[in-house]
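Figure 2 data, in text form.
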Amino acid sequence: MAIATAPLTRAQIHALGLASRKPFYTVDLPYLWGRLQKNNAVIFGAGLVDPPSGHNLHKIDVRTGAAAERLAWLEARVRQLHPALHNVRIAHRWGGPILLTAGAKPVFRQHPRFPQVTLLAGFNGHGVALSVHLGHWAAQALLGRRPLPRWS
């Protein structure tokens, strides 16, 4: 689940410690992730909603039920994160699927038919941080400077 604020002022961005524009995670649980957008809005995300029976994700409506409740929780959490966010306008709310893999280990291996292609997916809800880290690792592996992980 995720929300996006309206664009923030320069003072709000500095007060939040986001002037470096680096993506972040909070250290408390359940963790909150976020990143500053080009227009100075901030995207925040946290939380999961179980899909309806039959895994019909297209039937989840973020305006009702458990999804709406989770987004309301997320918005309240963001507003309590820092005084600069108490009255910020929430411009967008949405949710989407997260790939959960067996053993919570990302898919990270060579393509079975094309060894010059590295497959990297399934971050189990940690894509903001892991995609940057493992993407760098994949580039090193493609250059022959680092082996792929043993879990894959």
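Caption note: The two ends are 28 Å apart (CA to CA).
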